[in-house]
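HUMAN: Now follow token order:
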Amino acid sequence: MTAPWYRQLWPWLLMSGPAAVIVAGAVTTWIAFASADGLVAEDYYKQGMAVNKVLAREERARALGISAETTLTGSKISIELHGAAPEALFVHLAHATRAGHDQRLRLAPVQPGVYEADLTELPAGRWRIVVEDPRASWRIVKESS
């Protein structure tokens, strides 16, 4: 007498392949809906047209001899600026892959050439730091990890 089908190895082995595909598909669908890709901007055409203006502002900072040293320590950002002394600085911290973590800050001077501001906890990862003057006439771009 043979054992019933559910006690045989072959039916379970044959069903395991499609079951694994269903589980993998469900996990992939969950990942796709749970996390935004954030890679394509809605106004990509306008951003593309503005590239030359942005590059001109970075070139202006180089021509004026303006440079910056950034320090991110826990809950504070500090920038030492050389070559200019605006009344404040604006900094945009952009996460490499998660736009939801981006921050825009206004840094006030704490001593000549040094600007600081408090910030919320930054998750680990690669950060793009954009430093601008209040009039948006120049900007400096730094990378941090």
Remarks:
- The chain is about 30% helix and 30% strand.
